[in-house]
């Protein structure tokens, strides 16, 4: 157990649905991340929050909308997704974004299928 | 810009034999290097890291990695493989100074340990 919890573990949604992914950490970390893991592709960084402020948006389409209400919680709101958005979405946290040698702690991910 | 290469998509090794999973990197400054492992239906788990000091780094589950600056490599090794080591392995690098820098992950290498 890494201390980072993601819900739901699996999600199937249609292209017109709206859903949200949730991530929670009780490690006292101040940085939280969303990554996308697709088959046969490198891990893609989507968003970074540091002390609740979004510091990075890696050209992610607007149908993905992150929210970080506090340092312990991170959401990814989904709407009008496309089938190619089907992937494993991983949340991670670290002490803060810029500490030199801090490692990432990952959740187990949400396996998303868009029909 | 920083980058990571893992030249092998798949590594097969017999149980009890030594294993090596290769990683090479490119950074502007001095690298911080990490290995993560991903078991099926799970997020990534930290194995070990190199920050400074001894070039041979020991990590979890009997794994170790050797930092070679001249060859810009950070290969993961284990003297005697177990079937339970079968998983997806990711090398990651972070450039220094790390302010504003994100982790960059390699594409992953699937390790299969055969009984």
Q: What is this structure, in a nutshell?
A:
The complex is a heterodimer of chains A (115) and B (115). Chain A has 115 residues and is mainly β.
Observed structural traits:
A: 115 residues, mainly beta, seven-stranded mixed beta sheet, B: 115 residues, six-stranded mixed beta sheet, four-stranded antiparallel beta sheet, 0% helix, globular
Report the order of strands and helices of chain A: EEEEEEEEEEE
Treating each run of at least 4 consecutive H or I residues as one helix, how many helices of chain B? 0
Helix content of chain A: under 10%
Shape of chain A: globular
Question: How many β-strand runs of chain A?
Answer: 11
How would you spell out the order of helices and strands of chain B?
EEEEEEEEEEEE
Quaternary state of the chains: heterodimer
Number of strands of chain B: 12
Helix content of chain B: under 10%
Residue stretches of chain A low in confidence (pLDDT < 50, at least 5 long) are: none
Query: What fraction of the residues of chain B are assigned to beta strands by DSSP?
Result: over 45%
Largest interface: A-B, 25 and 24 residues
Strand percentage of chain A, roughly?
over 45%
Cα Rg of chain A: 13 Å
What global shape of chain B is seen?
Answer: globular
Biggest sheet record of chain A = 7 strands, mixed
| Through-space gap between termini of chain B | 41 Å
Question: Please, could you describe this protein's structure?
Answer:
Chain A has about 120 residues and is mostly beta strands. Chain A has no helices and eleven strands. In chain A, strands 2, 4, 5, 6, 9, 10 and 11 form a seven-stranded mixed sheet that branches. A four-stranded antiparallel sheet of chain A has the order 1-3-8-7, with no helix packed on it. Chain A is globular, with a radius of gyration of 13 Å. The model of chain A has no long low-confidence stretch (mean pLDDT about 90). Chain B is mostly beta strands. In chain B, about 0% of the residues lie in helices and about 50% in strands. Chain B is built from no helices and twelve strands.
């Amino acid at each position: 157990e890494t201390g980072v919890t993601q819900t739901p573990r699996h999600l199937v949604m249609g292209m017109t649905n709206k859903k949200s992914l949730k991530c929670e950490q009780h490690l006292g970390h101040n940085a939280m991340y969303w990554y996308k893991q697709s088959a046969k592709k490198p891990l893609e960084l989507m968003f970074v929050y540091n002390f609740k402020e979004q510091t990075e948006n890696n050209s992610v389409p607007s149908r993905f909308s992150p929210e970080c209400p506090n340092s312990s919680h991170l959401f990814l709101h989904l709407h009008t997704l496309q089938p190619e958005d089907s992937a494993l979405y991983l949340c991670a946290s670290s002490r803060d974004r810029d500490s030199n040698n801090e490692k990432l702690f990952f959740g187990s991910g949400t396996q998303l299928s868009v029909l | 810009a920083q980058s990571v290469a893992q030249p092998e998509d798949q590594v097969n090794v017999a149980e009890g034999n030594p294993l090596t999973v290769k990683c090479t990197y490119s950074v502007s400054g001095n690298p911080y290097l990490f290995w993560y492992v991903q078991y099926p239906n799970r997020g990534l788990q930290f194995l070990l890291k190199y920050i400074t000091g001894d070039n041979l780094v020991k990590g979890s589950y009997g794994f170790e990695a050797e930092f070679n600056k001249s060859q810009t490599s950070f290969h993961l090794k284990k003297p005697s493989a177990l079937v339970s080591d079968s998983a997806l392995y990711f090398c990651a690098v972070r450039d220094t100074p790390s302010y504003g820098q994100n982790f960059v992950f390699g594409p992953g290498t699937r390790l299969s340990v055969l009984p």
